[in-house]
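Section handout 9: paired folding examples.
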Amino acid sequence: MSIRLAVITGGNSGIGLAIARRLLSLNSDELQFRVVLACRNQAKGALARHQLLSAYPDALVDLVELDTSSVASVERAAAALLSYNGGIDLLFCNAGAMAIEALDIGGIVNGLLSHPIAFFESSEALRQQRGLVTADGMGETFQTNVFGHYLLINRLTLAMREGGRVIWTGSAASQLQFTHDDYQHIKGDKAYESSKYIVDQIAIPLDQRLKERGVRCLVAEPGNVCTNFLAGLDVPLFQYLVLGVFYFIRFVLGIARFTINADTAAVGCCFAALAEGADSRIKYHSHATRTGKPFVAQYPLSHNKDTSAFLVGKLDELVEQISGE
């Protein structure tokens, strides 16, 4: 039997947990996935592991503590993952955060009146916190969503098996307020969007680097999904409103990117991980039919060569500083 090791950051809930379920559902007499849930909250991680083992009693599911907003935590997690014999086949860079301060009433009114469909495809309704910096001195959202994973990839590169893949969970990335001067987006209020824009920009050069070891780097887009981000607002009525509108847009208007639930949203990540001939120049979008049947659409990855070089250079500088090189 062939055993493939899959590491999923943020694997205790949402899309990360859905990726784990999809991989374990593929286990057979010839192939078995061993899943490592790399997550910050170990109590939630243990609950997720219990859920997976209840559904798949013979599965191999492990926990590793990982907080991508902490360099020390990434280093400890990397050391733990390097101890696995046989190497890593799949690394899902899925953990992410959006520091929501409150609902943006002005943004909601403007969006509903001027561009209602595009409004629900965006995060305009959410006002994000400005000026958040981690103990390592980096922008909190930037470090959580981008640099923590970049450092993890750096530390695990030699452990990736030939034919392995790194899969980033992207978003409807936009260049909203992104600037070279504030690439960590500490001063602005679109830190989440900026971080996902960075993911799109670094994927191709990172893929070119990893290909030297027979490893690919890809980006998947989960679509519009109701995840744990909204739960932090503690405004249940708004959450139910968003859910209802999402179903209306998908069923009545037929807009396929409204995947709504995590299981459907995860199909793009799993396709990028397992499909033959995957290409870093393509972004793999999770979509759904009007009735919710999932499928994957492929579109060119938006990429600016100069911006990509700038960002990879900055990220490499941060890695060198941490490594003392």
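Moving on to protein 2 of 2.
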Amino acid sequence: MPIQYGVIGTGWITESWINAATRTSSWQLHAVYSRKQEQAEAFALKHGSKTTYTSLEDLGADRELQAVYIASPNSHHYAQAKQMLQAKKHVILEKPVTSTPEELDDLFKTAKDNGVFLIEAFRHLQEANFKLLQRTINEQKRLGPIYGASFTYASYSSRYNNVLAGETPNIFNLEFSGGSLVDIGVYPVAFAVALFGAPQTSAYVPFICRTGVDGGGVIILKYDTFGVQINNSKSYQSFAPCEIYGEKGTITINATAELESIKHWDPKTKQSDELAGPKVEVEKPNVSMVEEAQEFARIISENDVKALAVLERVSRDVIKVTSDMRRQNGILYPADKTSQ
């Protein structure tokens, strides 16, 4: 039977999730929450749900509801997720999962205390081509010893135009736990952590927007024998690919999300082989979330605590890295003050 789920947040990413979840046949949209009744009703009608809520308490009390997908502003994640977990609902929580590691610790404890799962929606880590890359690097040892890596995710945001016009959109607002690092940089950071594990140290050299958040910058993750350089931004555009370097060549990847090309260059033959398989095609403006929807449904349905533990470890490592780098640069959220 499909998992009966509700959504908190009615933006484009929620629509992508609903469309992907529907394609898997493993999920059934049951309820829509919004603070505004008319908005909840319009969104529910569009996506085939008959149940709407303007109260989180009422949403959590719905006995038919098994899980909730949350894609609200970053600063709301913790409180909304905790309320749903306490109501014994599984929670799929969009990245960044919380504003601070301390909040995440509490959410994982709450999930365990209530016998439900908390899963951060790192969609790119569930792509078939990313899992192929993991096997290529870590199991097949195609590159041999790793010498380093360079990852890029720098995509100019239309909302930066608002910043330049003197406005403060949520994603560029400290009060809403915004900034490039937690919105864009989290993709390549999670990419590195899922491939290589937690770094020994991390450093960030950002440029700070007028609003006080980072508009982008360069990240360095230090591992035992190599380093990873990351270029991230919501305020400028990069067209650079991603690369991993090793004793046995170079692997070039088109991006850290929606992988469609993984090429291995062999230094002996001077030839490149394409390793990637076909990626799941989606109709724009949707993003690829089918594989994560399928895997998260499987984890919940099969009570796969081993797979859940792997995802939890990645989430914990990523938020420690991003929070440490924010705090090193004085990029502080209201939640940081309550965590001290």
